[in-house]
Amino acid sequence: MSIVVTGATGQLGRLVVEELLARGVDPADVVAGGRSLERIADLAERGVRTVRLDYDDPATLDAALSAGDTLLLISGSQPGVRVAQHRAVVDAAVRAGVGRIAYTSILRADDTPLALAPDHRATEAAIRESGLPYTLLRNGWYTENYAQPLRQARETGVIASSVGDGRVASATRRDYAAAAAAALTGDGHENAVYELSGDSAWSFDELAAACSELLGREVTHVRRTPEEQRAALLAAGLDEGTAGFVVAMEGAVRAGALGSTTGDLAKLAGRPTTPLVEGLRPAA
After folding, report:
1. Torsion of CA 196, 199, 205, 209, to 10 degrees
2. Cα separations (Å) of 65 from 1, 13, 100, 131, 198?
3. What residue ranges define each of the domains in the chain, with the CATH number in brackets?
4. What whole-number distance in Å separates Cα of residue 213 and Cα of residue 136?
5. Which run of H or E residues covers position 4?
6. Which residues are CB-contacts of 80 (< 8 A; sequence separation ≥ 6)?
7. Is the model's pTM score more than 0.90?
8. What band does 139 get if pLDDT is binned at 50, 70 and 90?
9. Residues paired with 106 in a beta bridge
10. How many CA atoms lie within 13 A of 200 on its CB side?
11. What is the pLDDT of residues 203-229, one digit of tens each?
């Protein structure tokens, strides 16, 4: 029986594998799956079993899974196709008879206004309907998502948004990876649902202050209406769909979708989550 991590060539999946090894899991008991074996060749050199695992190729899923395995399904990144991809993984897990399936879902999947939520709700439903024991890791926002605004602030001294007074309880990918590794290796996580977020929720005024500290220059949060933000994004060269998505996301933040501070992430990880400034420091 192994711990199988899908998406190990991605940022979160790679960190989960590294966290498992750091926690003393025998490398021979870890399976790292991804589309490109070259990107995880170094894990193979450390004794991890690496396999080609493609959500769009059921044969690779069947080859990667065995009876009794603990499977971590890292969410795919392509809206519109990932529900089908996730269902393919769940179906393969049923065929193999895995012992438990964990899934990286989205914070407050049941009631969040985030546009990404329907795919996650559909996947959660498929997992529950499978009859397999499960662990739902409902991840909040990654601090690393704000690396690009940080880089822009270096040049302009401005972070512009339509989030108003909305707050974000972000944490780093490494924080979420630590929680996932704990859920994969510990007891008592069967059929559990964890709402994972940072220990504190920050405003975009505080994000600007954090950027000021890291960059050594004054950074200001410029507040825009949704209409002003959409127009500015279009003027900057974004297409209609992308601009609309960004404004919708900022509307969800304004409505409180990412501000929940549940404490589940720190409890699972076994340590406090990374503060905003420290989480952004590598990008600075």
Report:
1. -120
2. 9, 17, 11, 17, 32
3. 3-139 (3.40.50.720), 141-170+198-259+274-284 (3.90.25.10)
4. 36
5. strand 3-5
6. none
7. yes
8. very high
9. 139
10. 10
11. 999 999 999 999 999 999 999 999 999
